[in-house]
Amino acid sequence: MNVRLKPEKYLKYLYLPNLFTTKRTKEILSVNPTIEPQRADAKDVVVSVYDYNADTLEEKKLTAVGDCFRYKSSGRTTWINIDGLRKAEVEAVCTHFDIHPLVIEDILSINQRPKLDEADNSIFCLLNMLYYNEEKNAVEQEQISIILAKEVVISFQEDAHRDVFTPLRDKLKMANSKIRQRTADFLCYVLLDMIVDNYFLVMEKLGDRIEEVEDEIARGNNPRSLAHITHLRKELIILKRNFSPVREVVNGFLRSESELLEDRHTKYYKDVYDHIVQAIDLMENYRDIMVSMQDLHINNVNLKMNEVMKVMAIVTCLLAPATVIGGVFGMNFDENVNFFHQRWGFYAAVSMMLIIPVAMLWMFRKRGWF
After folding, report:
1. Are 105 and 38 in contact (CB under 8 A)?
2. Mean pLDDT of 1-5
3. Nearest CA among 270, 272, 252, 263 for reference residue 124
4. Which of 205, 227, 278, 292 would bridge with 132, disulfide CB 3.0–4.6 Å?
5. What percent of the chain stands above pLDDT 70?
């Protein structure tokens, strides 16, 4: 069978930038361009409303975004959660609740960096919810925008089928829960806290994967180990891009002097700040582990190569005497060489070819060279 090699297929990787053209790398290293966002409108939009106080709770699923407008001044704390983003509907909600137009652009942005913006009548924060896809062994992110206004918290999510707020919904249904006794800024804290706490669940899954790769390297030299290490380091890049800015977001709440934030809730935001700092420290530890694992893998490869080279060097040394003796006896002259034509000459030469390598092997062993 004739196999035609295509060197151009492999030579392109000698150019370093071509190593960063994989789909996953492009996705991780992509940044939000300073142009008009080109987000496609969601097919489905789900609007959930929780309007509550200490005594009552009204929970509704709305079919139209405009149905939530009446909760602007309900006299109770209201959480409006919108799953699925459509430009027209986002603009309608923000206009009705007197949200700055620049916030609309941030909500509709793609791959936006976590941030906090404060206006006279609202506080806007944007960050990512993280999930771990066990089938792909990859970290997935979903952008969420949270607006804190007077007695209202509005959250915009991209995916209508998953989030991390199920425990919050369960607590809201409990009449004696602390959330029902507090104001809107406490609800905003709970949303942030659940997002940050979910980061630890993602890191736990990623940590389990790191341990598996570490055991794989310790057991032996797997050719795919380096690929696994590279994949995990890319996932840690996602964590770093999300964790560090969130610390500044939470710190912005702590430094804010807005009337929307009550002093008695400052300690709760400090708790979220402590959690995100712990998450950053753990992520940095994971990065150090990955660097050590990569060094260990490279050292194992070099060690194996050294073992191979040592065996080849020993074999070469053992064959050297036979090569020299054979070369001498293969010369085209016989003058002044007494044993060239003796019956025992051949046996003497073969014996020397065997005895000298055995002596060399004993000497190598005695010196501890192998």
Report:
1. no
2. 47
3. 252
4. 205
5. 86
Lookup: tokens for 139:
């970290």
Using DSSP's 3-state secondary structure scheme, residue 116 falls into: strand
- Decide yes or no: CATH 3.30.460.20 for domain 9-301: yes
Q: Position 225: which residue type?
A: S
DSSP per position, 165-209: -HHHHHHHT-TT-HHHHS-HHHHHHHHHHHHHHHHHHHHHHHHHH
Q: What is the pLDDT of residues 263-321, one digit of tens each?
A: 999 999 999 999 999 999 999 999 999 988 888 888 888 888 888 888 888 888 888 88
C-alpha 84/C-alpha 305 separation (Å) is 55
The contacts of residue 258 (CB under 8 Å, 6+ apart) are 118, 123
CB neighbour list of residue 344: distance below 8 Å, 6 or more residues apart? none
Q: How far is CA 297 from CA 25, 95, 154, 211, 216, in A?
A: 22, 56, 48, 14, 10
Beta carbons within 8 Å of 46's beta carbon, 6+ residues apart: 61, 82, 83, 84, 160
State the Cα–Cα distance between residues 83 and 162, nearest whole angstrom.
9
- Which pTM does this prediction carry? 0.78
**DSSP secondary structure letter of residue 40:** P
Q: Please check whether residue 153 is in contact with residue 146, taking contact to mean a CB–CB distance below 8 angstroms.
A: yes
Residue limits of CATH 3.30.460.20 in the chain: 9-301
